Amino acid sequence: MVNHNKTLEGLHMTDQNDQSENNPSISGRVERIIPTSGEDVVQPLSADRIAAYLKAKELMFNRDDDGDVFISFDGNGFCAAGHRREAEILVVRGAWQVTAPIEMRDRLVDLCNDWNRDKLWPKTYVTVDDAGAVRVRTELNIDMEYGASDLQLKQSLDCGIATSMSFFESLDKKFPDTRFAQ
Q: Is the pTM of this model over 0.90?
């Protein structure tokens, strides 16, 4: 009998047409091979793990009383944290370093909408405070309810920060004089 089981990049795939006793699955399935050591071990998400990754990269950051991690790149601020009851969701939020006047709101909303339509991540949006100051924000939310390996956590943090920085750089190019003359 031909064995239809195949391994591909850490996934064990079972051919759904194999009805032998070696494959009790009727509909086929994908089973994760869960490692027990090294960077591929799945662990719960925590602010300590986020901080450890940034420390290993020799980056300066701050933490608040909740353990949320704050870091800045080229003046753009970021917060990385686990949200929900058991820190199930990794949230990487960014804020463009520029505060714009209320007259720029519609134009910035259009740019955010263009990005959101054309890119998968990060989500971009505009906020307005009580004084009428307009801020552009980014956000990447990743479900880590069942944990993440160190490699997954690193990739997710890097993705959230790098793609946000790409968006902020695109804004910097569109608005080279980022003081928005008033």
A: no
